[in-house]
Amino acid sequence: MMAKSDRLLRVLLLAGTTEAASLARRLADEKIVAATLSLAGRTANPIASPLPVRVGGFGGVAGLSGYLTAENIDLVIDATHPFAAQMSGNAIAAAAAVGIPLLAIERPPWTRAEGDDWTEYDSIEAAIAGLPATPQDVFSGLGRQAITALSKAPQHRYVIRVVDASEPPANLPHATIIAARGPFRTKDDIDLFSRCGISHVLAKNAGGDAAYSKIEAARKLGIKVHMVRRPAIAPRSTVTSVDDALAWIKAHHQRRSERGV
Ligand code: NAP
Prior knowledge:
Bound molecules: NADP nicotinamide-adenine-dinucleotide phosphate
Number of strands: 12
Oligomer: single chain
Strand order of the largest sheet: 3-2-1-4-5-12
């Protein structure tokens, strides 16, 4: 059996974001580590990965700890979405349990710019409950998992943007679902919001560029944004860019090489 020291560093890359896809390409090009990309399996047609891919939950902290041990993983990179708090928390706990380093790529959240009309909320449910009682024209950028929550306010006319096409549920009689994958363009979102007479935008504070168009479009059109703040995640080592994550991985690779193993 190959000793841990005789082989390439083994990296688990928790994915589901543009940063994860970008880091996967860089790791595949550089070939200094053996990395596996992990997807939750939420989307029907995930972006093709140049790295080996595993799909589906691990089975909580215990399942992930078992996976890290069985696969001899040396480093965990958490490049999940800022709202994937369950996965991030599990990763922190499992990496600590197994005794291996974890690094998260954490995009800075969006901040208000001049002209933004935001109200911030601590949950998706609160952001929806904050809409006026009378029917409004609402764009939802909250994702597929929030559709159930929208049905608490079925009087509104919704335009719901999600990755995979589906029919709106029966309890949302005035909803239209648009299937599209980012990055989106501000110009297109201005056209969409104008065409649909959007009065409110529901958004999660994802940060990054790919989904920022709806925020810029709302600003330009004077539309109110109900912004969901990020969930709390336990303290961990973080970087804000793929470049910095790659540098961190390379530093670990270098340390191993210098130890002559
Ligand atoms: P979550 O609530 O934090 O995770 C729920 C469970 O799904 C986790 O406990 C884990 O199951 C499994 N899981 C999540 N991410 C995984 C991954 N990368 N690999 C393997 N299993 C994973 O996450 P979520 O908000 O449902 O998001 C799911 C995925 O979609 C994430 O990968 C995230 O990056 C991506 N995404 C999320 C959003 C968002 O707004 N939430 C937006 C864009 C992309 P076990 O406990 O069984 O291990």
